[in-house]
Amino acid sequence: MSATSPPPPSEVNEASPLLAKTTEPNVRHVLLGLILVATSSLAFSTMSLFVKLVGFNFPPMEIVFIRSILQFGLAIISCWYMGVFPWGEPSLRKGLVVRGFAGSVGLALFYYSLTKLPLSDATVLFFVSPIFTAILARLFLKESYSLFDQAASVVSFTGVIFVAQPEFLFGARKSNPSDIDSTSRIIACVACVCGSVASSIAFVTIRQLGLGVHYMVHVVYFGGISSIFSLIVSLIFEPVKIPSTLYDWVGLSVISVSAFVGQGLLNYGLQLAPSGPATLMRNFDIVFAFIFGITIFKEIPAMNSLLGTGLILCSTIGMGIKKWAGRR
């Protein structure tokens, strides 16, 4: 039997796998794994699409709550079906709570940015999480953070500036039906990047907890704590709106189910395929985000956004290829 190991934290984000995977898969398994990972990108992109669609009718935290409570229920049922104790070992529960809370904050900030920014911009900004995860892994797990990684970080953060397009650097933006004012855009971009940091904290915590925690236990804590966190924030800061139409219920249900299905496909795909190529396949999220944004929301990306996207993609792909080559 081949050895197993969890994905390194520099290769994960909110949509990343929580299972160990084989290190010596055969060619058919690799191909199937890559197909599953690419399909999971479609599932997560569908989730983001419907967050933006229903975000016109519901506050972001209410969307987080409905997604999280359904995810929590599905995770509990899955634990029962698989014979897994849903609360984990007592000695690991403090770490699981930290993971759940950090993931909740990351998810909430990402959903907020999805309701304010073009779909492609929000997705690209959230995908800088591998950079933050590499930095945090160096600080807390003493993992390597090479000169190449540092250069990739600088390139990625430069890309963030081009996507955010602060007015004091780029001047006033041309009017676009999907645009918000410059100040609101900067706030949404900062929120999205902060969500990426929170997501990175969650997955560094997962790495610290190690293989002693079943991946579905992580989903239980993530869903449960997100439900509590989003409910409290909604009751304090946002007016609660009850879904009243079939469109509302379908949209909110698709968000929950597509997120859960995407996580399952990703977990299984990363068991079969090496983390390097699979990490590269995760960038299909950005491709789907551009397709959905242009075709459904008529969001034509500005040249600066395209340049920033290219810089972020180059840095994350470069880090993925470097880590893959280093393991061969």
What does this structure look like?
It is found in: Membrane. InterPro entries: EamA_dom, EmrE-like. The chain has 328 residues and is mainly alpha-helical. It has one domain (7-13, 21-327). 73% of the residues lie in helices and 1% in strands. The chain has helices spanning 27-54, 60-82, 93-116, 119-126, 129-141, 147-164, 167-170, 182-209, 215-237, 246-272, 275-281, 284-296, 303-327; strands at 4-5, 21-22. The longest helix has 28 residues, at 27-54. The chain is globular and about 55 Å long. The two termini are 18 Å apart. Mean pLDDT is 84; it is low at 1-6 and 18-23.
Features:
mainly alpha; globular; disordered N terminus; 328 residues; transmembrane helix
Question: Nutshell version of this structure?
Answer:
It is a multi-pass membrane protein. Helix content is 73%, strand content 1%.
